[in-house]
């Protein structure tokens, strides 16, 4: 499964400067791998989650790290999507994968999340287990997972409210929410 996701990401041309890529149909999209953090101390703002817990929800999965400026500048867009589409079945799940050693502390991540008013669940991925399971290579990176747990779309790089890229991704999100 990891190789299939990785091949899919390469196939859609996931790069830092890429425009939104074509969304895969539910039939061709790979299943998202199980979350790798299963202990309560590995999650902030939530008990450990599984894809079974999220059954029937569309998930915007965000890989980020608090020392990344592009990640921090994308947070207002992520929060806007969460607020706007929560009642339509969207859940935002963050995956905090540290780039530097000072970003590994759960208390430092929690403090930064409070400072940034991040209220969605965040899984701590200090060992890069989920990063590797998804075949991810970028901060920030975003994956759109459909109601059946299939990875339908991926983007990398900063996304801002009101940007052409943000609006295109929002249209794709709306299409998957409408399915």
Q: What does the secondary structure layout of this molecule look like, with pairings?
A:
Blueprint: H1 2-11, E1 43-44, E2 58-64, H2 69-85, E3 90-96, H3 106-115, E4 122-124, H4 129-134, E5 141-145, E6 151-156, H5 164-178
Parallel strand pairs: 2-3, 3-4
Antiparallel strand pairs: 1-4, 2-5, 5-6
Number of strands: 6
CATH class: Alpha Beta
- Roughly what is the average pLDDT, rounded to an integer? 90
Question: In terms of per-residue confidence, which ranges show pLDDT below 50 for 5 or more consecutive residues?
Answer: 10-20
- Count of distinct structural domains: 1
Keywords:
179 residues; alpha/beta; Glutaredoxin; 6-stranded mixed beta sheet; 5 helices; globular
